[in-house]
Amino acid sequence: MTDPASTPLKVAVLGAGSVGSQTVRQLLERHDELAARIGREFAVTGVLVRNLDAHRDSPIPAELLTTEAEPLIDGADIVIELIGGIEPARTYVERALRNGADVVTANKALLAESQVEIFEAGREGGAETWYEAAVAAAIPIIRPLQDSMIGDRINRVMGIVNGSTNYILDRMDVDGLGMQEALDEAIRLGYAEADPSADVEGWDAAAKATILAGLAFHTHVPREAVACEGITGITGELVQAAKASGQVVKLLAVCERLDADTPDEAVNVRVTPVLLPRTHPLAAVHGGMNAVFVDAMDAGSLMFYGAGAGGVETSSTVLADFVLAAKRIVRDAPPEFITFVDHLPIAPLDRVRSRYRIELQVGDEPGTLAAIAGKIAELGVSVRDVQQISAPQSGPATLVVSTHRAPERDLQQVVAELRTLDAVESVVGVIRVEGVE
Amino acid sequence: MTDPASTPLKVAVLGAGSVGSQTVRQLLERHDELAARIGREFAVTGVLVRNLDAHRDSPIPAELLTTEAEPLIDGADIVIELIGGIEPARTYVERALRNGADVVTANKALLAESQVEIFEAGREGGAETWYEAAVAAAIPIIRPLQDSMIGDRINRVMGIVNGSTNYILDRMDVDGLGMQEALDEAIRLGYAEADPSADVEGWDAAAKATILAGLAFHTHVPREAVACEGITGITGELVQAAKASGQVVKLLAVCERLDADTPDEAVNVRVTPVLLPRTHPLAAVHGGMNAVFVDAMDAGSLMFYGAGAGGVETSSTVLADFVLAAKRIVRDAPPEFITFVDHLPIAPLDRVRSRYRIELQVGDEPGTLAAIAGKIAELGVSVRDVQQISAPQSGPATLVVSTHRAPERDLQQVVAELRTLDAVESVVGVIRVEGVE
User: Fold this and answer.
1) Nearest by CB to A151, which of B147, B284, B322?
2) Which residue of A233, B100, B219, B284 is 20 to 30 Å from A182, comparing CA positions?
3) pLDDT of res. B4
4) Domains of chain A, start order
């Protein structure tokens, strides 16, 4: 009989894309160093690919490549899932966990869709799921929320968690590009996919927001409960106007606790483009970088900053989770499972208190400003300032109304009613303002 | 017989200063919430103080206060040590660990001095030491280095880890205060102790640097091996000159891997005031805030930012470690111990490659600049630029020489030789430059 302590841990890698191939390369090249940190030998038993021919020139040794998922998964102590997407990743991950193999995954879409089922499969099989790489790639944020802040009460998480859109908005801000120009550039340089919908519509950020919210509030927030607005409505003019007034446009995933310590306590999770003052720490996050800003009752403000994408950057986190999973198995420590013990209700967007910047095209008649201000006041919303951006000799003028914080439902009503005013030719744009009271 | 799973965990708190009293308050006030996260009841069995009378007006219930350390420690499942300093903290911590009680501590001085002995006591007693609060208070940095980056290779850690000195330097930078003025203000506002030596001499930062280096390099770096220079030599003039050239003075704890992947691989750990370009993420860390910047082979650059001091901020981290220790005991997971598996040699400062900014008072004779440049070139150091800051009609002029990166030993020789030059009246100041190549 072999001594289990001397048997190398068997590691299966599913997927050989940019993260997968980097991960396999390092598991092989840095084997001795990683084994020393684990305290046990390990061996990569195979790498699942869809098509062997497509990987003929891959640096992965040909004898490791396989198209047979089940035998690879069933023989493994640790399964590293880097396929992405829902299926077949979900079937593979749940199979591995039910087999009792720990799973390391970078798959935010899968977790956002099925985290409850995945944790349940792990409970059944006595195996743990490690997913630090699923949000903000190289940045440690899952474990800090889950462990380092477990004694505190988190009130708000605001994250730049999508590198593509941050790259696009940053180019528009720094170099004055228009949206289409910046998007084309992002695709050309590999910051965005050829079909950029998941990024620019905010869906990728929304998947990450549900994961962050679950950890921050100990409450399961289904993906469908995340209000999601992307950056497709952001124009070069808005970005430049923001710049002129000391602000910057960022796409944020926001997880917020509402009415803390009252019977109405609830959480809202949303993805939305916002204006931030340039002095806010998140305003300095450039290019494809990511950052997550956390406000907690005791700890105050914290920020975690780093690379949010990239094969080698993501593999750093995948390898860490692999070492931790292996150490857990070697130490024979019981697996940990996320439990959503707080069960806070999920509040719709209209309960959130926001600040709006509303840009209007207005007629040039006397009394216009009074009519607009009167209508807003009538709806109970307080105006912070009004700016007349352009005032040609004749023709329509542009008016920018900034409100104080008010419930979303009131702000949305303000926008709807402004559209009906005779004095208002059109509502050009509406954007939320964050990072100020 | 009582079911151990139904027995509340017994928690002893040692110390009732600003962190201790906040921690006790929250353990009592937020008992139900914390117990739910742990999954087991717990009870604070006592709070060790030196003098009962001194705590007569404390919010801590009088019946919890005790001056008897041994019975309190010996009856506890978890001991939270918030006394600070070496003794009697070390005796208490080691006693608790040998008893098999997990220890939560915020005591950086103790860890810097005795981490090896403390981990050894834990190994003997089968108990774990939790010390996230010992470095950068509210910021999760211990566990990210220990766990989240365990699959990567860290090349450099640069931290603003002392809030007092950052407050002083920030006031000098933003408000133009002199060193003494800023220091007095820091003491008056409670950012610094009445005896500020541990802060301004860099000793506090050096203690934290040994802890960070141990985690980053899997190598024990004794406190004595940390080269330590404080901020007492920093003048208001230097801070303003730096500001004028787009730089800022910060006191950094630097942990650096030298000659990676060569037979000469080693680590150097130092505390030193440096000039940083204002575009560096650490330059934006104001007031008493802390931040730790990490450069890793795969992950690239990461930054962790937040409150580095304060009773309630530190208690956030102490409570998290308490919950994690309690969960470990409830789950019956084996304790984890830091093991310094890499045993890298520790390199003296003179092997580090630095950039220097050297300010000289020079005579007004022709040929001065040539003589100085010639001497520096002769010693093999390359000059980046030379600036003549003031040039009155007659009398001495101020010359600022910025070098390229060169070995410290060569740079130190440059400074020594410049002092002997006839053309040089005095070397006014020397400071390292970081954050640029």
Assistant:
1) B322
2) B284
3) 61
4) 4-137+312-331 (3.40.50.720), 142-308 (3.30.360.10), 352-433 (3.30.70.260)
